[in-house]
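User: For a benchmark we're assembling, each entry needs the component sequences followed by a predicted structure for the full assembly. Here are entry 17's components. Please fill in the structure.
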Amino acid sequence: MILLTDRPPNLETPLRYFKEDLTPNDVFFVRWHLSGMPASVDENTFRLSVSGHVKKELSLSLNDLKTKFKSVSLVALAACAGNARSFCDPRVPGGQWKNGGMGNARWTGVKLKDILDAAGVKPKAFDVSFNGMDEPPLSSVPDFVKSLRIAHAMDGEVMIAYEMNGEPLPLLNGFPLKLVVPSWYATYWVGMLNEIKVYADTFKGYWMDKAYLVPKNVRNGNEKPDSLSKETEPINKLDIRSIFVSPEPDAIIVINKKCEIEGLAFDAGDSIVKVEISTDGKTWQAAQLAPVIGKYSWRRWKFEWTPRVAGTYTLRVKATNGIGETQPEHHWNRSGYMRNEIETLELKAE
Amino acid sequence: MMNIKKIILICSVLLFASCADMQDSKLPEDNTDIKSLFTQTPGEELYKANCITCHSLRYIQMQPPFPRKTWEKIVDKMIKNFGAPIPDSSAKAIVDYLVAVKGKQ
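Assistant: Structure for entry 17:
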């Protein structure tokens, strides 16, 4: 893996692993905010608590989750809010991810709705917060806690996963439990989840109020360095994006020989219906889409291309979804979130 | 690969700041040699004293060069938003250090 930082640990998946439908657990990207994280979790004594604005507080063991609730499974893409930040121009501070701050996995666990129903959410519940076992290294540092509106938490799709690709979650990916919020950025996918609280009013916390904010009501969260948006809102749904996976940047290809270009496209669940490639900077040709894996999964694509003349080529890729959304020519915001600018790939043909 | 994850975890827990020998060949281009961050200036000592409680030097190593104004904002954010207990006098020297190792006009 590509080591971004060691403490707290942040690791990126090398592009070559994106040639598979599901990203292997051993190379799945890792993102932690706080260095006070446990080196092990005892699955026998671990408990998930559900408290706050509920009729009955719960303290659930892993065995409770696996035996007392219906198991569900779905494939979903987890994409870091700051994925591809290192490509921003001008550059912005933060984790300098290339495209490997994401991964596609089959998540198995229980519906958050079923857990909340077991606790009995009281009338007029408004927010639900999610906290993991990772802790601030100093008491002055804000704990990493995220929240969702009650209607979202109860939508039957948000899930508490205890398995990733058919195995227990790796510790660095949030063992033993991870919140899975399909089509929302992975900042909400709280790992080592052990505390759920229901609130009758708005949840207040640094990681919702001051961090992970994007320009409000602006498509793709786009803004300009010299005219920043005045209003911001918590980041939420994935925007539409496509990337090249192979060949890798600066690869040398052979003229008059078929070159297979492949990549990925994804959005917030409105289905990728078209991926187009440009090899000349002017015209677009449709790529071949692989079968749909699932509503919240990425979708693979392939494009066969035979360069006839030696030289340097700049390929471009853009995706379109079922509600007509496509990608912008340029994308930037102050935090480097939601990057989905039309990607380019430089290749040399010899 | 599992081994790498395990090693990283051990590093993180044991507070090892230097894991340079585990670098993948595909590190981001800004991932400068960690030795260039060892300046033996007062700012570096203050950085070590104040910043690595929460995060390792790799947080700096990973960043591209930024202007002084950006580094000032980052240090200010660490103090005001992330609760870093850094006195003003040290903050200035830390910014000097950051500009020295990752500065840009």
